[in-house]
Write a structure and sequence with these properties.
globular
Length: 294
Amino acid sequence: MNQSNPPPAAISRLPVLATVRGAYGIVLGEPVLFMRAVAAPFLLSILIAGLTLAMPAYPLISFILAIASLTPYAIFGVAWCRLTLLGPEAGRPALAPSWAPRHWRFFGYQVALSIIAFGLIVPPLLIGTFQAAMVAGAENTGAAVAAFLLGEIAVVVGTVYLAARLSFVFPAAAADEIYTWRHAWAHTRGQGMRLLGTIALSIVPAVTVLWVVAQTLGIFALPEIDSSTVRDGTNPEEIIQQYLADNAGLIVAAQIAMTGMSYLVMAVTMSAISIAFRISTGWVPAVAPPPAPV
């Protein structure tokens, strides 16, 4: 594959386990390059998180900050996809990356997929919650809740499957390829479940570690609200707000740890998708790229 002539369909069947091993091999085998790639985006994520906590919780401000929070992940995603596709020399991440057209494309795909996921998941969730409230107290409440949960799980799985089928646009954007949603859909046709399985197997270990860290931090980062306190008329929200104010340092440390772990999860995911993209499309660089700047 080159920039002007992507194949009409996948040229190779995706080897799931080999792709997963390759993804972890890159992430675990290049810890120094991971630190280079994550340094600037990590600091930017912490800055945006701080602004989110400090700014008033107005819908417009929250929306702008939510979109802005994707930008450091676009910087890291481009760098890590290029490292995976081009190798540690030509794809060496820069400590001070500049924003290029490839970042705009990667960021645009992030925003588009986020909007699609929101549109597919949130409305059914709201409708299901409303319906569950309507049947509360009825004899079939349990069945209604079970049906709602199964339906929501199906929507989430379907949304993740759709995202997996379209995910090749990310490494393609990072590699400056002329590549669209249509190409991604064609190149994942017939092996969508293999790609979904590859992504799932790639992120499960990383997400498990993330979950353990989150649960451990949660023990220390959130207060336990005693029922007697609530009966005394104290607002639980006030208890939490006071706790956050009294333990700001602990909360910041927890935010830093969780942000760092999120980049580890993204590194594994982007490596898996990039390897799958390369195998399925036969991608090779159009010309040998020069080494990345230090």
